[in-house]
Amino acid sequence: MEEMRTVTHKVMGVVKALICSGILTAAGLVILAFLLLKLELSDSAVAVGIVLIYFLSGFLGGFLLGKWNKKRKFLWGILLGSLYFSVLLLISVIIYQVPAAGDTHFTKVFFICMLGGMLGGILS
User: Fold this and answer.
1) pTM of the prediction?
2) Residue 93 belongs to what domain range?
3) Spatial separation of the C-alpha atoms in residues 3 and 76, rounded to whole Å
């Protein structure tokens, strides 16, 4: 019975960290959209902003999981970054009906999310 509580606790921790990452992503994208509207940012500046938002969101989730789970923090961060990417990919496929296989953009975003989560876990 104790094992079940521990597993449930860890799953809920991952869900909470993913929600926090999602909230940061949404807030970051709103801010970026506002900056784009007011400052007429270039396409490259917007792309850098999006990458930064993905990285920071993964970092936050990994940091939170590292704080909540005292052992193997970097692995928790990698897990969070991978799950965060999976959620982004799922949303992208649902909205844009974009096939996921074979696109280097998806690979880059995956590694950005995973690296952010891993670093967040390590530094927690």
Assistant:
1) 0.86
2) 2-123
3) 18
